[in-house]
Amino acid sequence: MTSTPHGARARARIEITAAIKEEARRRLAEEGAAELSLRAVARTLGMASSAIYRYFPSRDDLLTALIIDAYDSLGETAEAALQGSAGAAPGERWAAVCEAIRGWALAHPHEYALIYGSPVPGYAAPASTVPAAARVAVALIDVVRDAHRAGELDVPALPGDLESEAARMAADFVPDLPPAVAPACVAVWAQLLGLIGFEVFGQFTRVVEERDAFFRHTVAGLARTVGLRPADAAS
To answer: What residues form the membrane-spanning segments (predicted)?
Structure first.
């Protein structure tokens, strides 16, 4: 069957878009997001400067596409770990998802920096990035949710001055979990990203040598914070 001109144009657009994003990722690794330039990307690819704007009208549009791709890639990795650990104890599933997030970050340090590093000057992420950004957090929350449904979640204590805030947070993103779990989820999410960021950005140099063991130990502590029993705890 002969492809239609419309189909050929669509395929060409997909291929050129992919090439633009690949070159942009290369430049992120070499120069950082703040230096990303559509004209420089076009020049490397042999495109006219005016042509690249038909694919990405601005630098911010290109950054947004790269950010969504990074979030989706990380989200897929976390979701695969969640699915692959189905049937295991909640602490084991938590550890599996955390290890998957760390593994992705170490394999994609510049993309991790793009989504969890310093903000890019002059860029504000649009609402279109939110669904992709939520995927990895939802994978971790699903571990907590499944443990709660199975009666295996030890609901953390909550100080009185956080009760109203906990209720608001729970209503916003975990309405099916006890309110006290919501602040714990936010706290461990921030701590996990910081832990991984320290490793990715070299801040553990001459501080932590046995990083695999250190990560496992710390992740077990985060599991306890959110009410999960560690992976090696007896049932």
So the answer is: none
Q: Is 88 helix (H, G, I), strand (E, B) or coil?
A: coil
Summarised one tens digit per residue, pLDDT across range 149-204 is 999 999 999 999 999 999 999 999 999 999 999 999 999 999 999 999 999 999 99
**At residue 233, does pLDDT exceed 80?**
no
What DSSP letter does each residue of 163-224 carry, written as one string? HHHHHHHHHHH-TTS-TTHHHHHHHHHHHHHHHHHHHHTTTTTTT-S-HHHHHHHHHHHHHH
The C-alpha atoms of residue 44 and residue 48 are separated, in whole angstroms, by 10
For residue 2, give every residue at least 6 positions away whose Cβ sits within 8 Å of its Cβ, in sequence order, or none. none
User: Token pair of 101, please?
Assistant: 């997030």
pTM: 0.90
- The string of DSSP letters for 34-54 reads GG--HHHHHHHHT--HHHHTT
What amino acid occupies position 54?
R
- What's the rounded Cα separation, in Å, for the pair 183 and 185? 5
C-alpha to C-alpha distance for 91 and 85, rounded to whole angstroms? 10
**Which of 154, 149, 146 lies closest to 226, judged by CA?**
154
Question: Residue 137 to residues 44, 130, 169: CA-CA distances in angstroms?
Answer: 36, 11, 14
